[in-house]
Amino acid sequence: MLRLTDVVRQHGPAYLERHRSSIMPSHVAAVQAILRCRTPAMGGHLATCEQCGTEHLLFHSCRNRACPQCGYDATTKWLDRQRALLLPVPYFQVVFTLPDPLRRLVRSNQKLLLPVLFQTAFESLSALCADPHFLGATQIAALTVLHTWTRTLEWHPHLHMLVPAGGLAPDGKTWLSVPVRKKRFIVPVAALAVGFRGRFLDRVRRLLPTALLPQKLWVKPWVVFAKPALQGPDKLLDYLGRYVHKTALSDHAILACDDSTVTFRYRDNRTQQRKAMTLDANEFMRRLLQHVPPKGFHRIRSFGLLHAAHRHTLLRLQLMLAPPPTVKPEESTSPPRPKMRCRTCQKGSLVLGPRLSAPACIAFMAALELRATNGARAPP
């Protein structure tokens, strides 16, 4: 099967050579990490099959958050941490989207404006929830994840927010809950969009006083979408977890790759039909790498009661709203990582042995080639 890693290894070096002086350092680091990931340059471990005794060389991963081969362990641990913080109440999913005239400006000023996107979205929601006409809660919670892509890898920054249906009253002890009904949210979505628009544009105008903001941005309605998480917050967490530590495109979407083009599969939002798109290799690399965030930027942020500063209050609410959990806190609710199977006998499990440096890996592979040349049975 053709993998996204194969595409980057085929076209990444030429893309860097052509655009290295103009692209972000995090994009250069991502390509270089993918080129080295699970190769002798990363070093590895020697593993032995417990059944047939065949030796295998397992190369190390780069652990870059843009690498399509990495992220399984990080995603599993992230999901476990987030599930441990869930409140036993209904949840809502809220999506904040920036209009098209602002997207290029935000892409050019990511370190400055993406944090503003997080802050203004939560501030707008928190302000309306504090209004006694809606909820009257002075403290709410929100887990927010930034997505920047469409199904065709275009730049489309938007926030996915997981919000409990309720919040703490001004006394700091009473939980104010909201019944989840079909097509209903804690606060009016139209009012939420207006507040989000005003706060975001005001911050942009103060941070970038020379930026040209079209007048229609102030009057055209912004898209804020909200719906109850009817299947529970676990399902939404699983969806968000797919992209927390991975790229915008999966290996299964890659259909073909040649010297000049890349073809991938996507789902059309309007018709919900599967379609194929062929892009010039340079354009494909540009679209793919534009979703690599700047170095040190966090795409996942917790606000309100989910912030680390409020862990004690959150634990108190978990105990107050539901009986003690039946699963011990230290136990993982995610499926265990599958065991590594021997590629020779397909039956035995691999047992990790000594760690090998990059030169040692190269020497080991050279020894295998020499053994194969001399006619000896060489492990794969």
Describe this protein with a few key phrases.
disordered C terminus; 11 helices; alpha+beta; 380 residues; 5-stranded antiparallel β-sheet
Helix and strand arrangement:
Blueprint: H1 4-19, H2 25-36, E1 44-49, E2 55-59, H3 72-84, E3 91-97, H4 100-108, H5 110-129, E4 141-149, E5 155-164, E6 166-168, E7 175-177, H6 189-207, H7 216-219, E8 224-228, H8 233-244, E9 254-257, E10 261-267, E11 274-280, H9 281-289, E12 300-304, H10 311-321, E13 350-356, H11 358-373
What can you see in these coordinates?
By secondary structure, the chain is of the alpha+beta class. The chain has a domain at 72-248 and 291-321. The protein has eleven helices and 13 strands. It has helices at residues 4-19, 25-36, 72-84, 100-108, 110-129, 189-207, 216-219, 233-244, 281-289, 311-321, 358-373; strands at 44-49, 55-59, 91-97, 141-149, 155-164, 166-168, 175-177, 224-228, 254-257, 261-267, 274-280, 300-304, 350-356. 28% of the residues are buried. Mean pLDDT is 87; it is low at 376-380.
Mean pLDDT: 87
Strand content: 15-25%
What is the count of helical runs? Answer: 11
Give helix and strand order, one letter per element, not per position: HHEEHEHHEEEEHHEHEEEHEHEH
- Main sheet: strand order: 8-3-5-4-12
The amount of helix comes to 25-40%
What profile does the largest beta sheet have? Answer: 5 strands, antiparallel
Task: Give the overall shape, derived from the CA principal axes.
Answer: globular
Total strand segments: 13
